[in-house]
């Protein structure tokens, strides 16, 4: 492409939180020129992720991702954030990758470039017309990161900037184990003192022996912190973390969460003092695991049909705080939608339906992350109950799953704003 003046590529803002939108624009192209916008990220695991879209410049020689259509690539249509949410491992990468931020004190760096023509591959061998770097942060300016190692509890507390006190959250991820900080850092960037709780190590089987008083102790560490409003502490859990959240909300006599957010969770768990029984249930139901034509494991059948015996599941009719359930209709890991319907029945029978909010998304899988995160339909997973590795099928299709991540995050933030910042809080009729 011959040009009299250099092509200009801009990203605004070039530095932003990961849940903020940006505007990508190209100027000084010849009118009607086919070009490809490409994004490239090198993960902390040294893997490369990319996305790209095909565009044609307008009569003024410009392309705007927010206003123009992509005619092909990893996404199509008018998608301002397509260069992020449609990212996938570059061809030839290892199987089953998942992109996760480990060091929240540094940004995700995304190189964005524009290339002549509609390119499908070989971006590394091509000289771009222009390129620029975008910084995507989970940790907002002024947020403090404080390691927690007290009373046997392990985690990281993120405290928003300012004098406080702030509403608090105990934040738990799922069965992959380890200390996952990035969602808590982002929540703190929105004004919540958020504890990223580690409740078992990534390479340990000790999770089976974690007793629920561990979580009660962790909750109290948050509520008793001098920069936390003690009666405005909620719980946020995904997958296994959502099971723990529902257990604490329904069974604990020690803590009283102000509200709970449960993403992709189930309530199939005998009321017990540790997670041991849950893992024994999974092992006994392992014969129900299915595999698809790519030999990826599908777990949702392990918990089906839902037991009629109430002793085999948590009694969510005992919950006395607002609860938000977020689920995908294509969850292939757990029967989350069936469980949500059962939870609604329990709460309705207990006269507590007013405390329940449900959102469900078509084409959406198990791993519902903060917005603009890539969609992971299947990834490598180390099964904590057997220590074996397998490719798990989580479900979802890229575009609807990504839309669900954006919409659900906005709903979650609105729910937390309503119940943790507001002086009014619905409780069950006692």
Q: Please tell me how large the radius of gyration is.
A: 23 Å
At CATH's second level, what is the architecture of the largest domain? Answer: 3-Layer(aba) Sandwich
Give the count of helical stretches.
Answer: 7
Helices and strands: which structural class? Answer: alpha/beta
With strands numbered from the N-terminus, the spatial order across the biggest sheet is 10-11-13-12-14-15-18-19
Describe the structure.
It is a single chain. Strands 10-11-13-12-14-15-18-19 form an eight-stranded mixed sheet, sandwiched between helices. Strands 2-9-8-4-5-7 form a six-stranded mixed sheet. A three-stranded antiparallel sheet has the order 1-3-6, with no helix packed on it. The radius of gyration is 23 Å and the shape is globular. The longest helix is centred in the last third of the chain and has 24 residues, at 398-421. The chain has 430 residues and is of the alpha/beta class. The termini are far apart. It folds into two domains: 8-137, Acyl-CoA thioester hydrolase/BAAT N-terminal domain (Immunoglobulin-like); 144-421, Rossmann fold (3-Layer(aba) Sandwich), CATH 3.40.50.1820. It contains seven helices and 21 strands.
List the helices and strands and how they pair.
Layout: E1 8-12, E2 15-17, E3 23-27, E4 34-42, E5 48-56, E6 63-64, H1 82-85, E7 88-89, E8 108-116, E9 130-137, E10 144-150, E11 153-159, E12 166-172, H2 182-189, E13 193-198, H3 212-223, E14 228-238, H4 240-251, E15 260-263, H5 276-284, E16 290-291, E17 297-298, E18 323-328, H6 336-349, E19 356-361, E20 378-382, E21 389-393, H7 398-421
């Amino acid at each position: 492409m011959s040009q009299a003046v250099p092509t200009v590529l801009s990203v605004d803002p070039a530095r932003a939180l990961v849940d903020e939108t940006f505007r990508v624009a190209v100027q000084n192209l010849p009118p009607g020129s086919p070009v490809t916008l490409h994004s490239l990220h090198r993960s902390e695991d040294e893997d490369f992720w990319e996305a790209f879209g095909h565009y044609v410049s307008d009569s003024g020689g410009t392309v705007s991702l927010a206003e123009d259509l992509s005619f092909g690539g990893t996404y199509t249509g008018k998608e301002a954030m397509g260069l992020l949410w449609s990212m996938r491992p570059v061809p030839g990468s290892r199987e089953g990758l998942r992109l996760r931020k480990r060091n929240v004190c540094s940004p995700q760096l995304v190189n964005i470039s524009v290339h002549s023509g509609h390119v499908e591959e070989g971006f590394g061998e091509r000289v771009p017309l222009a390129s620029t770097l975008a910084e995507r942060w989970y940790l907002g300016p002024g947020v403090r990161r404080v390691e927690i190692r007290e009373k046997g509890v392990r985690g990281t507390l993120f405290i928003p900037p300012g004098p406080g006190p702030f509403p608090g959250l105990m934040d738990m991820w799922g069965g992959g184990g380890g200390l996952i900080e990035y969602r808590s850092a982002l929540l703190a960037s929105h004004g919540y003192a958020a504890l990223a709780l580690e409740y078992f190590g990534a390479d340990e089987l000790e999770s089976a022996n974690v007793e629920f008083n561990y979580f009660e102790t962790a909750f109290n560490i948050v509520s008793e912190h001098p920069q936390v409003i003690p009666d405005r502490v909620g719980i946020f859990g995904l997958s296994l973390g959502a099971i723990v959240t529902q257990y604490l909300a329904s069974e604990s006599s020690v803590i009283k969460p102000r509200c709970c957010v449960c993403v992709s969770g189930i309530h199939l768990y005998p009321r017990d003092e540790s997670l041991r029984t849950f893992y024994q249930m999974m092992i006994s139901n392992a014969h129900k695991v299915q595999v698809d034509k790519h030999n990826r494991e599908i777990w949702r059948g392990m918990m089906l049909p839902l037991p009629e015996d109430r002793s085999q599941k948590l009694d969510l009719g005992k919950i006395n705080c607002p609860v938000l359930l977020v689920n995908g209709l294509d969850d292939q890991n757990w029967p989350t939608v069936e469980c949500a319907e059962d939870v609604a029945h329990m709460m309705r029978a207990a006269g507590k339906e007013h405390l329940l909010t449900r959102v469900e998304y078509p084409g959406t899988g198990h791993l519902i992350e903060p917005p603009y995160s890539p969609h992971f339909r299947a990834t490598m997973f180390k099964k904590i109950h057997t220590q074996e590795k397998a490719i798990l099928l989580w479900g979802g299709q890229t575009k609807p799953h990504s839309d669900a991540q954006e919409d659900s995050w906005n709903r979650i933030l609105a729910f937390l704003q309503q119940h943790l910042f507001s002086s009014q809080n619905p409780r069950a009729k006692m």
